[in-house]
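Dear Dr. H.,

I hope your travels went smoothly. While you were away I took the liberty of generating a structure for the chain from your last submission, since the lab meeting agenda had it listed for discussion. I wanted you to have the full record in hand beforehand rather than looking at slides cold. The sequence, exactly as received, is reproduced here:
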Amino acid sequence: MSENTKALRVRIKSVTSTMQLTNAMGLVASSKIRRANQAMLAGRDYAAALEETVSVLASDRECFRSPYLQVREAKKTKIIVIAGDRGLAGGYNANVFRLAAEYPDAEFIPLGKRACDKYDTPYNSSEHFSFEEAAKLADELCTAFASGEFDRLGIISTKYHSVMSQEAYIKWILPLQNDGTKNASGMVFEPDCLTVLNNVAREYVAGIITVCARESFASEVAARRMAMDSASKNAQQMINDLQLEYNRARQGAITQEITEIVAGSGD
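The corresponding predicted structure, in token form, is as follows:
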């Protein structure tokens, strides 16, 4: 019986250490949520302004000649995949990779350590991904798209709905969309709409990549906080169950010793 109580003490100590770790990781994630959300909301406003500008330009007939509006048969697709730098975030990374698996013929451009590990490319950070890095990547991609090296560009990232809900999705960036609903009347672009669009396209792609990275990071820390909260609650429940089992085993051992003493005294 003493061996059983000793094993239970070891398990209780081990689970308690794990709970302390999950509590600490949950606190770290909580401390990052506010800053991540502020960056995400600012990025959404910036993306909305960019998309409005590009939509107006793309609706102008003069811009139909832009290489960024040319719709081609999607024989070669490139997809930027944004995952986290770390794990222990519930299904955050798994959901991104599950969506990416739906495009087996695409060439993936990973962002974030987990994505880089999966696709065996040099490490880059999704948490600290800067606009300068996004601009450099966008310049390379826009040049390659305009020259016909690939036919469409997408980005797989995670949409933040709330602390409890995040959703992996794909957004197609190139070719630019022309829905024909925007009207540029009253707007004057210098030197002309086509030139402006061809220059704005690169900033648009860089902006969308940056915004998706910011929103993905906000989703990651929210998912990690929820995962660590759940792990801590499960650990506490396990400790309670083990403590109850330990108390019963200890009481049983004491009862057995008393019985043996009484039986010995009777002899």
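Two observations you may find useful: Residues 193-266 form the longest helix (74 residues). Residues 91 and 137 are 28 Å apart (CA to CA).

With kind regards,
E. W.
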